[in-house]
């Protein structure tokens, strides 16, 4: 496997309360700090309301126009009627990678039993990987504990290297 180059990353926080200013973003900022500390470039961190079409358009722009390597979403993966991030993601991805979301749920369940209720998904669109993460700072950090060590292998195989 060739050396692992820094990734270009976009982070999307899907939250009505953060987008309308009644709450502060901690999960997206935490993800950005973590990715930067690993040497990656965070090209954009955006906050949007829990609206399928708004989320979908942002994901499409980042995948097709900006062509980031990785999109991390935070929030909107639960069971409330306004949790629509998985639906928006499924409308964008071309190939599902269910093992990622399964691993994140399994790891999250060790500390938070309700983590299994997450509807988060992961998949690829072109050369971009999209991964839905929980909406809490702790959930994001625990999920990145699982995802981060996999990134070199994920992107080597996505780039056609042998595995």
What does this structure look like?
With 163 residues, this protein is α/β, with parallel strands linked by helices. Helix content is 41%, strand content 20%. It has a single domain, classed as Molybdenum Cofactor Biosythetic Enzyme, Chain A, CATH 3.40.980. It has seven helices and six strands. Strands 2-1-3-6-5-4 form a six-stranded mixed β-sheet, with helices on both faces. β5 and β6 form a beta hairpin.
Proportion of residues in β-strands: 15-25%
What is the strand arrangement across the widest sheet? 2-1-3-6-5-4
Globally, the shape reads globular
The poorly predicted ranges are none
Assembly type of the shown chains? single chain
Number of helices: 7
Domain count: the total is: 1
Estimate the helix proportion, in percent.
40-55%
Name of the CATH homologous superfamily: MoaB/Mog-like domain
Quick summary of this structure?
This protein is of the alpha/beta class and 163 residues long. The protein is built from seven helices and six strands; from the N terminus they run βααβαβαβαββαα.
Topology:
Blueprint: E1 8-14, H1 16-19, H2 27-37, E2 41-48, H3 52-66, E3 70-74, H4 85-90, E4 95-96, H5 98-109, E5 122-125, E6 128-133, H6 137-147, H7 151-158
Parallel strand pairs: 1-2, 1-3, 3-6
Antiparallel strand pairs: 4-5, 5-6
């Amino acid at each position: 496997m060739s050396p692992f180059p820094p990734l270009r990353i976009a982070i999307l926080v899907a939250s009505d309360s953060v987008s309308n200013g009644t709450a502060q973003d901690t999960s997206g900022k935490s993800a950005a700090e973590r990715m930067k500390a690993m040497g990656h470039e965070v090209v954009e961190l955006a906050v949007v309301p829990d609206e399928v079409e708004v989320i979908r358009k942002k994901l499409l722009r980042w995948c097709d126009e900006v062509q980031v390597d990785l999109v991390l979403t935070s929030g909107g993966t639960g069971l409330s009627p306004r949790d629509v991030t998985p639906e928006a993601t499924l409308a964008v991805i071309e190939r599902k990678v269910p093992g990622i979301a399964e691993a994140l749920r399994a790891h999250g369940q060790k500390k938070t039993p309700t983590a299994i209720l997450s509807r988060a998904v992961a998949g690829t669109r072109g050369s971009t990987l999209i991964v839905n993460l929980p909406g809490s700072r702790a959930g994001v950090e625990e999920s990145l504990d699982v995802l981060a060590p996999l990134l070199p292998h994920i992107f080597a195989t996505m780039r056609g290297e042998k595995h």
